[in-house]
Amino acid sequence: MIRGGLRMILEHQQDMAVVAEAADGLTAIDLARRLRPDVSLVDIRMPGADGLEVTRALAGPGVADPLRVVVVTTFDLDEYVYGAIRGGATGFLLKDAGPALLVEAVRAAHAGDALISPSVTVRLLRSMAVPATPAKGAKPLTDRETDVVRSIARGRTNLEVAAELFISLSTVKSHVSGIQAKLGLRNRVEIAAWAWEHGVVTGPG
Fold it and tell me: In terms of pTM, does the model score above 0.85?
C-alpha cells in the first residue's frame, strides 16, 4: 500500500518515473545495482536487509560508484537518522512529511543536494554536537566556507545560502565542492553533521 502510494505521487510528476519496486532489502539492492536509478527510496524496516544495510550497500563508504539514496520511514528515531547519514543517504524523510516534500527530496537528491525532514534536522544534528576540534587530516576552511557550512547545517538550500550570504548560486556550489574535498565528505548531509559534531554551529538561526 505504501509503495503504491509513493509510486502514484512520483509518477504524477512529469519529470519522474518509477523503474522498479522491491518488497525486501536484498531485492532492492539487486535491482538498484542492475538498473542504476537516479534516486532510490528506501524504508528503514524491510525483510531480508533493513534500510540501513541497503543504504550502506548502495551509497556507503567504499562503494565504487554510489547511488543516491533517500530514506523514507515512519520511525523518527535518532539512531536511524544518524545511521542513514553515516551510511551515505542523501535524504531522510518521514512518511507523514507529505507528497510535496517527498517530491522535493527526490529532486534534491537528483541535483546532488540533500533534504532531511525539518522535524528531525536541527534536533538530530544539535544532539551530535561536541566541542570544536579539527577533523583528522582536514584542511582548514576559509571564513566564507565556514559561513556556507553554518548555513547548510541549519538546513538552507543552495539558493537560500546564496541569498543569505549575498553570493551567486555558482559560487555556493563551488564552495560546497571545496568544503567536501577539504573535509573528505561526500554530500551536504555529511557537511551538516560535521558542522554540529565539531561545534561550527551550536544554536538555531
Answer: no
